[in-house]
Specification:
Distance between the termini: 73 Å
Largest sheet: none
Strand content: under 5%
Mean pLDDT: 79
Radius of gyration: 26 Å
Structural class: mainly alpha
Number of strands: 0
Order of helices and strands: HHHHHHH
Length: about 170
């Protein structure tokens, strides 16, 4: 017979409204009274006891880790918590190569998460755009900014270069 240690934090152990209140309190740094109002809970004196239960302490520890990721990278990505732990522990141990690699992975995860947000907003990534699409977006931005279109003058040297290479534009 094997025994398993139960996880201190289980989603079912904290009511959803209390979970929302704790998120407002920790992530947005609101006082308990304002966090209760925002979560739709009536504020009572004993509401702070939810912070000190075993499940509450474990959840608050997770929220503090999430807040650290949000402060450092500006995005709420759960996978970054583990990468930040690896980075910090490797720095403490003096393994700078591992720390740099973990930080590179953090930056890649942030880039992918932000690229996912851009895809949801309907905009293409700049790396995937053609020259014409980029010029169209520049002209739209310039038109929005000062009311004038964006004009690109063709340099005759470019045409000569492309002809010398053997490719027509």
């Amino acid at each position: 017979m094997t025994t398993q240690q139960s996880d201190l934090f289980c989603e079912n152990r904290i009511r959803p409204d209390i979970r929302a209140m704790l998120e407002y309190h920790v992530l947005e740094d609101l006082p308990l009274r304002a966090a209760c109002e925002k979560a739709g809970l009536p504020y009572q004196r004993h509401v702070s006891q939810h912070k000190f239960s075993k499940a509450g302490k474990a959840y608050i520890a997770q929220l503090k880790q999430r807040r650290r990721v949000i402060v450092e990278f500006g995005i709420d990505e759960p996978s970054l918590v583990a990468l930040l732990k690896i980075r910090d522990e490797s720095l403490k141990a003096g393994s700078y190569v591992a720390a740099v690699r973990a930080h590179e992975l953090c930056l890649q995860a942030v880039e992918k998460a932000k690229m996912g947000e851009n895809e949801m907003s309907g905009k293409k990534n700049v790396k995937d755009m053609t020259r014409e699409e980029m010029l169209a977006e520049f002209s739209a931005l310039k038109l929005k900014a000062d009311g004038k279109g964006f004009e690109v003058d063709e340099d005759p040297r470019d045409a000569v270069f492309w002809e010398s290479v053997g490719r027509a534009k």
